[in-house]
């Protein structure tokens, strides 16, 4: 089972919380927005979703 994290750049406020909380460093800040640069490493733990106040992050199972 794989997980695909996505960030809605319209909702992302650039707080970096997801970058800090992710245990496998899926996210990186680019142009003051979070980008899932290592999406294939996602564990599906949903930690990023829990800390994202504007609900900009979704994680889908494949």
Can you put this structure into words, describing what you see?
By secondary structure, the chain is α+β, with helices and mostly antiparallel strands. It has a single domain (3-61), classed as Alpha-Beta Plaits, CATH 3.30.70.20. Helix content is 16%, strand content 29%. The protein contains 2 helices and 4 strands. The protein has helices spanning 17-21, 47-51, and strands spanning 3-7, 27-30, 33-36, 57-61. The strands form 2 sheets. A two-stranded antiparallel sheet has the order 1-4. The chain has a two-stranded antiparallel ribbon with strand order 2-3. The radius of gyration is 10 Å and the shape is globular. The mean pLDDT is 98.
Short description:
Helices cover 16% and strands 29% of the residues. With 62 residues, the chain is α+β, with helices and mostly antiparallel strands.
């Amino acid at each position: 089972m794989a997980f695909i994290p996505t960030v809605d750049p319209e909702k992302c406020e650039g707080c970096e919380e997801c970058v800090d909380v992710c245990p496998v460093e899926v996210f990186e800040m680019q142009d003051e927005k979070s980008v899932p640069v290592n999406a294939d490493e996602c564990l599906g733990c949903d930690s990023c979703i829990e800390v994202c106040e504007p609900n900009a992050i979704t994680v889908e199972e494949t």
